[in-house]
Amino acid sequence: MYEEMSDRELFELFREGHQEPFEFVYERYKPRLYVYVRNLLPYLPPDEIGDIIQETFLKAIEKANSFKKKHAFSTWIYTIARNKAFDRWRKSKRKIPDPPHGPETPEEKIIAMEERDNVLNLLQKLPDDYREVVLLRAEGFSYREISKVLFIPERVAITRVHRGLKKLKEMKKNDGR
User: Fold this and answer.
1) What's the pLDDT band for 101 if we cut at 50, 70, 90?
2) pLDDT of 33-67, one tens digit each?
3) Rounded to whole angstroms, what are the CA distances from 176 to 59, 74, 117, 118, 132?
4) Could you tell me where in the chain the CATH 1.10.10.10 domains are found?
């Protein structure tokens, strides 16, 4: 029943007092928000990332009446997650360590892990303004949605994504030498 409904419709049902629609939205967004926060703060252990996701949804419940029907639910929930992640970052002020390497696996997994680690390392070297827009774009956000999440003009979002991807390609090319 809920699979057919938009996030906005589900959240409206929740605001009217129905619990199940919120649980459905939670299950829909939890994995996506986890990846987003993990990419914003890759040095955090998984349990702390999980805490941020929980705090995000608690804030969404607390501020349910502030959600405007004219806005996309995804923009609203990602903005909350972003704010919670940066609150955690400001509190911790940790340095970003090298990504952990797991035990040896078959050659294909090693190559895939190395490539993933390489991309994550390159992403971390991007200036914050570029990294964040590239991550949001990779999550499937439109330029308009990115501009709303980050409170920047849409034209600035387009420019930052373009420059961020260009810089990432240059870094990858230079890293391969």
Assistant:
1) very low
2) 998 898 888 778 889 999 999 999 999 888 888 88
3) 43, 36, 14, 10, 24
4) 104-177
Q: Are 91 and 83 in contact (CB under 8 A)?
A: no
The CATH class of 1-95 is mainly alpha
Quick one: tokens of 14?
């929740």
Which residue in 89, 94, 112, 93 sits closest to 102, CA to CA? Answer: 112
pLDDT tens by residue, 113-137: 566 667 777 777 888 889 888 888 8
**Calpha distance 139→51 (Å, rounded):** 21
Q: Is 100 helix (H, G, I), strand (E, B) or coil?
A: coil
What secondary structure letter does DSSP report for 2?
G
DSSP E strands: which ranges in the chain?
none
Count CB atoms within 10 A of the CB of residue 78: 25
**Alpha helices (H) along 63-106:** 73-92
- Looking at the domain 104-177, which fold is it? Arc Repressor Mutant, subunit A (1.10.10)
Delimiting residues of CATH 1.10.1740.10 domain(s) in the chain: 1-95
Tokens read off for 101: 């390497």
Q: Is residue 110's pLDDT more than 50?
A: yes
